[in-house]
Amino acid sequence: MLSQYIYIHQSNQRQGTAATKTRSQVSGGGRKPWKQKGTGRARHGSIRSPIWAHGGVAHGPKPKSWKLDLPKKMKKLSMVSALSQKYSEDCITVIDNISVEKPSTVKMIQLLDNLRLNDQKVLIVLNKLDKNIVKSTNNLQNVKTVTDLNLNPYDVLETKKVLFVKDSIKKIQEKYNESK
After folding, report:
1. Domain CATH for 89
2. 3-state SS, one letter per residue, for 44-96
3. What is the tally of structural domains in the chain?
4. Which region holds residue 25: left if phi is over 0, alpha if psi is between -120 and 50, else beta?
């Protein structure tokens, strides 16, 4: 289930914006370069044909969507599987609250040092978006900050440790409760 989710997640990250111009999109080539007969040369209708220099590209890439979808129950199951895997590996830490008055990367480093999470890839899950915490973690290479609404199995599996704020873990338990 998790490998299928990761495949779909990575597929949905593709942009699909590669594009080339066909002969109709290249500027110029409105008139016939020379007459059809009598010159001894091959017949041509436009100087923007794909066989000419500066001509259009035949069968080139066009923008397309790589989006795939996964049923809701499978998404839910993959999230539960990812969190239970992290729990079984003892990689989940829960703290009461994170508060930063103003953005400070140094304070965030100190917090991670106190929790012994400084040398590992960490996912911080907040109950609501706090711009000061996000700005404090932006410069930290191994730290990613998300809210409980934006949490996904790919982010959980990509990191070594997951740091939850107490309120966010309550919301996640409600959302992914098995009795529903």
Report:
1. 3.40.1370.10
2. CCCCCCCCCCCCCCCCCCCCCCCCCCCCHHHHHHHHHHHHHHHHHCCCEEEEC
3. 1
4. alpha
Q: In this structure, is residue 36 part of a structural domain? A: no
Residue 12 belongs to some domain of the structure: no
The predicted structure's pLDDT at residue 178: 67
Query: Helix crossing, 2-12 with 72-88: angle to 10°?
Result: 110
Give pLDDT tens digits for 22-78. 999 999 989 999 999 999 999 999 999 999 999 999 999 999 999 999 999 999 999
Domain around 94 = 70-175
Q: What six digits make up the tokens of 150? A: 């934006």
